[in-house]
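It is worth pausing here to work through a concrete case rather than discussing structure prediction in the abstract. The textbook approach is simple: state the sequence, then state the predicted structure, then interpret. We follow exactly that order.
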Amino acid sequence: MYKLSKKEQDLLLEKIKSFFLDERDEEIGELAADIYLDFIKEEISEVFYNKGVQDAKQKVQENFARLTDDIECLEKIIKM
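Step two, the predicted structure:
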């Protein structure tokens, strides 16, 4: 499970409580928000993490391919 700083944890709990109030017109307490945050961290966040890793991997591969092309353009053809 992800470890959050106290500041990050407090901010996310406030965001969750605000979401429930704004979107569902439901006021939830600290404990309910904490349980919801734990659920997100344990069950959902892995999907977003993996998507971020996949996106980064694709970007690195694209940049490496472009760099390889640039380096090959620098190579001089030697006539023998």
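Step three, interpretation. The helical segments are 6-24, 30-74. Residues 30-74 form the longest helix (45 residues).
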